[in-house]
Amino acid sequence: MAKYSKFEKKEVVAPYKIHPIWRAFGCVMFIILPIMSGAAAWELVNGAGKDLSFIVGMRGNLQLPGTLYTLPYISWAAAKISSIPNLPAMTIFFLLILILFSGIISMLYAMIYRMIGPPRYTQIDAPAPRVTTIKKHKR
């Protein structure tokens, strides 16, 4: 740059903006996935789980240590927690089903985003290098 020349700002291409439908989709999934997982865990433990042997061992109320029932403010929460039927099984299956549903939704989202999302390279990116890696060597 010369001493007396003016600096001209180059016009930068704006980056790809996320469509609002994808933000709404994520927000809805943040609310709907735990509800669906809770309903599926409830049906698995209370409905179909009555016949499954591995669920029968986890059924029943949670037994907390006796010292928690004597503390002033914690005793109310301990009584509420221990009164929920099948809480250990519900918690385990809720988390497992939530992970499963999240994985399925993430895979679907990735496939859809790849099909209709932004291009991989934009005008800002440098072109891909033209390199040939296989050369014939002569002895």
Protein described:
With 139 residues, the protein is mainly α. The protein has a domain at 20-116. The chain has 4 helices and no strands. It has helices spanning 20-47, 53-56, 74-82, 87-116. The mean pLDDT is 80.
Write the layout of secondary structure elements.
Elements: H1 20-47, H2 53-56, H3 74-82, H4 87-116
Helix pairs in contact: 1-4
Observed structural traits:
4 helices; 139 residues; 51% helix; mainly alpha
In short:
The protein is mainly α and 139 residues long. It has a domain at 20-116. The chain has helices spanning 20-47, 53-56, 74-82, 87-116.
Order of helices and strands: HHHH
- Please summarize the sheet with the most strands: none
Distance between the termini: 50 Å
How big is the Rg? 29 Å
Which structural category fits the helices and strands? mainly alpha
